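For the sake of clarity, the format in which proteins appear in this thesis is described at this point. The record quoted next illustrates the convention:

___
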Amino acid sequence: MATPAIRTFRRLEGLFCVYKPVGVHWKLVRDTIETNLLKGVNASPPPVPHEVRFLEGSSDEAEAPRGLSVYAASLPALSKHPLVTGPEFQHIRVGVGHRLDASSSGVLVLAVGNGNRALNDLYNTRTTRDYTLDCEFGTATHDFSPTGRVVERSTYGHITQDKLERVTAMLEGANQKALKLYSNVDMNSQEAYELAVQGLLGPDGKSAPILTGLRCMHFQPPRFTLEVQCLNESQRYLRKVVHEIGLELRSTAVCKGVRRTRDGFFTLQDALTRHHWSAADVMRAVYNYHSSKKDRKRPQLLIERPVLGASVGKVTAAQQSETSEDVSAGGAR
């Protein structure tokens, strides 16, 4: 018979996501959640089993027979008490999906128990991730980060939003060609169209970073904000892209902040903030994940048929998802 701790752990198995604050290493996030889950699972210790023991009895009656008098009693087995054996769960392994460096924030996907297998499947799929990049013209650093050593300063008064959008469109077009190059599928086939509609058109396995979408969301020099949709990226690569955009505009630029707004089907709306990293909140998040997974598996009744001559590149570009509202993150402990 399963104990309360085992039943609680089974309800925790699956995928969920949290909001990683800026300045916190992903290992600290994982360790904090592991500790909270252990506390939640072991909060209801199993009942102490009882065992039958024969105890010596005493009798004051004059007619009692001589010799030892014993009686049977049911007593708790102290050798199996939680204070002796310790908590039932000593360790809970929490897996981490696509990681974020300490300077970045946003959606971080985690897994518990058998959810680690689903996490490996998420790694092997060609689902994209969305980022919001807060950038600034006029400065270049040696490592493309705002805390790096400044190597160059430049003017930016000649930059307009139209010029910035032309550069982003050029980069997006070059990456669309790379996406088709790395995809092992005929671009004129029905398979390519269906993969593009589902947002799954991309390379098999690892490849160079690819930007499947890039657009300017806000422009107020020297500040500007970019929305990026990409595959096989790293946060350092995204900062380097901002640096290259500055060079293309005859200026310099540095990325002030990187925030992931979507990882696969996990968005900011699904992310748990630091004050909700408890076992109960994780349990609800995992339940929502399983419910949404069932909904995604339901067959669609209406299937849109492709138009002859339709461009797969245009379909892919149309798959960009709107950025969700920001989730305020608490400070690191």
Notes: Residues 161-182 form the longest helix (22 residues). Residues 1-42+82-125+266-309 form one domain. Confidence is low (pLDDT under 50) at residues 299-333. The two ends are 38 Å apart (CA to CA).
